[in-house]
Amino acid sequence: MWELCRGNADNADGRTAFDGMRWGDETAKEVVERYLNYLAEGIANIVNVFRPQAVLIGGGISAEGEALTLPLQKMVDTKMLGRGRYAPVTIRAASLGNDAGLVGAAMLAKEKK
Known about the structure:
It is a single chain. The protein is mainly α. It is built from 4 helices and 2 strands. The protein has one domain: 2-Layer Sandwich (Nucleotidyltransferase, domain 5), CATH 3.30.420. The longest helix has 25 residues, at about 25-50. The radius of gyration is 17 Å and the shape is flat. The mean pLDDT is about 90.
């Protein structure tokens, strides 16, 4: 991961660990696994309270696609309460990705006219 950061930790972002994981970096794999576990805990808590049909992951990290959503789906499935009594929740990357905030702001401005 240090090479991906070009020797400066300030160059690290959400993509750095996923890129490192794909390159076979063990530390990057651990970082991604820990990140996914924390994210799955949070999503499972939301799912356990609200029981949505789907959870969409947005922002820049959503560009990771199935490298993010597939393991996250498995983790959330194991953390959900009452798994056999409720329909499974679908986890997907938001189609707007990192532009979601921008599009939302534009739509809000358009509504205010």
